[in-house]
Prior knowledge:
single chain; mainly alpha; disordered C terminus
Amino acid sequence: MKRFDIATPLGLIVAVGCILLGNYLEGGHMSAMIQPTAALIVLGGTFGAVLVSYPMPVVLGGIGSIGRLVAGGGPDAKVLLGEILQYAAQARKAGIVSLEKVLPGASDPFLRRAVQLAVDGLDSKTMQATLELELTQMDEHGELYAKVYESAGGYSPTIGILGAVLGLIHVMSNLSDVSKVGEGIAVAFVATIYGVGSANIFFLPAATKLKQAHHSQMVVREMVMFGALAIQEGQNPKLIEDKLSSFLHDKKRSTGAGGKAAARKAA
């Protein structure tokens, strides 16, 4: 279930609005800030640098993840916990094999996969090793999209300086018209504003938010893993609920160490 996150658009509006307001109060004009050529140099150059840094599927995936900045997706921890408890109750009542009929209706693919391993008769040690390997792969893959924006945030200020230098070269080649020198220099430095601004207002904050969303999802995945292991061991649903409830609190904190902390509590 997707939840609209107003913080991202609100943050962009506040940041850009305050900068433009400050520029106006200092006597600046909006027209001076609108320079399509500078935007082309900075954004195009940054995009090219990112393409050099990452394979095309990763770059496209990073672009596609923009939606996650305003609409939090991924599995809902409370919903998954409810499903885990239902599966645990049914497994104790009718046997773990009975879950095979209801698993196709699971709301999350990883939950379906984890419980299916238990239904297939894997022992706890092998099952945990298999799921931990899958979680490691998910963790590494999930960080890639955030790194795309992180890299863009590192490239854009430098490319903004490059745009400013190109503008100054153009100004210096036209020193015969002294009346336009000051205006030309001002326009040249707009590229630096675009580079530094895009990095610190969008690219780097976007990377941070995507990392937080990824960490939050990893906490939920770990909860599913320990829930599936508990089902495989035939534990009481009430005990499972008590053990897995710590993951809900760690998800709210959304920190990088949250999932590991919850795992230690549940183990």
